[in-house]
Amino acid sequence: MVQRLEKCGINAEGRPVVFCVMDGVGVFKEGPGNAFWLAKPENILKFIEEAKQNKLYREIYAHGEYVGLTDGDMGNSEVGHNALGSGNIYTQGARLVIESMREGTFWNTQQWKDMVVDTIKAGKTVHLFGLLSSGNVHSHIDQQIMIIQKVVECGGKRIRFHPLLDGRDVAPDSGLEFIAQLEEALAKARDAGCDACIASGGGRMHLVMDRYNAEWSMVERGFNQIVHGVVDPADIKDGYKGYYTTAKEAIEEGRRLFPTLLDQYAPGFVIVDAEGKPVGKLEEGDVVINTNFRGDRALEISNTFDQGAEFDKFDRAAHGPFPAVKYAGMLQYDSDLGIPKTYLVPPPSISDVMSEYTCELGIKSFAIAETHKYGHVTFFWNGNRLGYINKALEKYVEIPSEPSDMIEANPAMKAKEVTDELVAAIEAGEFDYYRVNYANGDMVGHTGSVPAAVEAVKTVDESLGRLWEAVKAKGGILVVTADHGNCEEVLDGKGKPKTSHTTNPVPFWIMDAKYDGKYTVNQDIDGGLANCAATTMNLLGYEKPEGYMQSLIDY
Ligand code: 3PG
Ligand code: CO
């Protein structure tokens, strides 16, 4: 349970505090792939300079063990916003799953028995789908291959895999390398007497992995491929057939016909036999396992499989009856709402998040982002819980985004609209604490386009300039940081596009319109994102909640 906190002596007047996340803007040396330096963001550079003079600037860490991952893992928005919003480091899905597999717990649970062992005994098929990647952001191929091996060990006679190509958390064109690894594991399964093969697939930003209700058509396309063996007719064009006998052939043909399309946007494919029949349609009694452990892009597809007649996003029976199958997630993606109903590993239990404290204290808060990052400042921020903690004290605003394939052409995204709305809220003065996420540095960074990423940084810069004017006019405090790096490294060491996040530290600074020198940013503690919540509580005028990681300020 959260405890009411005492005042700490800072900001006794209760001036507004604004916490700003520049998504995907890390700190890295100047170079041809560093969009931050190429953009020369005037406001940000000036703000940082001033903050340095006031001893209110430092860098903090946003990757590996600082966010509950394994040392050396790049950060990501889920773990980053979890840490920012909860004031603590929780061992995250990526680690929970692999540790439970290695220790053996994974294979000894009732869920594994019900989902896999019983399906095998009933002579049915084990279907696996998910992001085929070593990115360790949504999934890891080692875990997927371990599941295949274990199914065979348990006597499984039929496996169908529906891989989604990544190219967003790993090199943009690495899809075929992962397909080769998967094919090798499936070939071994076949050698051991299990009929195992790839059944369908395509790009992760085209199929299945939508988030925050942005593009349900992605989920529909993926569902129809996995369940009914049907490719979206819109994908079948310009010579691309949609139905192939191997995944490699489909991917190579897609690349040849659409050379500008990165793996993440690759068209869908369904694998067919010599007669042209899909090899892996779902049948009654089969089990489908979502091998992704991260929640945001797994919620919609989980509801699609789990919900009954109340499901209204699209017609699941448009291409034939939706068979009664069993569905399990690698993790439970939302434990409050119980999505999905069955899962193989219990998720981290993130408790006493900062929003619970602010609500308990009667602090009124406002959270805003455009759709692509909306759940980051709400769902992830609140420890993977959908919805309000206390609606009477909180307002969550989502500015509708454009589809993600339009981001490269419009790197400004909806930053202006986000800022308009946020500035208006600050001017109206109804809230004590505001938080915002600017998506540009990250979402544009994921395109691997340097000119677009430079524009993205300029957009964030302009927005921060406007934001500070509004905060200053209210005599408030603005805290700026990032959840992980991305746009500061849009090219790899060889000058090729780099679409994934980075392990770089992120900037952290405070701007206080009435700064009187009574507090400074501590340069000595080994600071990471999880230290920000206590810092914000201090700036709001309260002590560090018990059990939270140390604040970044000394006072
Ligand atoms: C995505 O889901 O878009 C990427 O895999 C990770 O990006 P994010 O952690 O910034 O959301
Ligand atoms: Co990202």
Work out the number of β strands.
18
Q: Remind me, CATH topology of the largest domain?
A: Alkaline Phosphatase, subunit A
CATH class of the largest domain: Alpha Beta
Work out the helix count: 16
Approximate helicity band: 25-40%
Q: Assign the structural class, choosing from mainly alpha, mainly beta, alpha/beta, alpha+beta, or little secondary structure.
A: alpha/beta
Q: Tell me the β content.
A: 15-25%
**Domain count:** 2
Annotated CATH architecture of the largest domain: 3-Layer(aba) Sandwich
Q: Residue ranges: pLDDT <50 for 5 or more in a row?
A: none
Hetero ligands:
3-phosphoglyceric acid, cobalt (II) ion
- Sketch the major β-sheet: 9 strands, mixed
Keywords: Glycolysis, Isomerase, Manganese, Metal-binding
GO molecular function: manganese ion binding; phosphoglycerate mutase activity
Pfam family, one: Metalloenzyme
Cofactor: Mn(2+)
Describe the protein.
Pathway: Carbohydrate degradation; glycolysis; pyruvate from D-glyceraldehyde 3-phosphate: step 3/5. It holds the Pfam family iPGM_N. It comes from Carpediemonas membranifera. Helix 6 (141-153) links the parallel strand 3 and strand 4. The strands form 3 sheets. Strands 3, 4, 5, 6, 7, 8, 9, 10 and 11 form a 9-stranded mixed β-sheet that branches. A 7-stranded mixed β-sheet has the order 2-16-15-1-14-12-13, with helices on both faces. It has 2 domains: 17-91 and 350-554, Alkaline Phosphatase, subunit A (3-Layer(aba) Sandwich), CATH 3.40.720; 94-345, 3-Layer(aba) Sandwich (2,3-Bisphosphoglycerate-independent phosphoglycerate mutase, substrate-binding domain). The longest helix is centred in the C-terminal third of the chain and has 24 residues, at 450-473. Helix 13 runs parallel beside helix 15. It has 16 helices and 18 strands. With 555 residues, the protein is of the alpha/beta class. The structure holds 3-phosphoglyceric acid (3PG) and cobalt (II) ion. 3-phosphoglyceric acid (3PG) binds at residues 24, 76-78, 137-138, 168-169, 297, 442. Residues 24, 76-78, 137-138, 168-169, 297, 442 line the site of 3-phosphoglyceric acid.
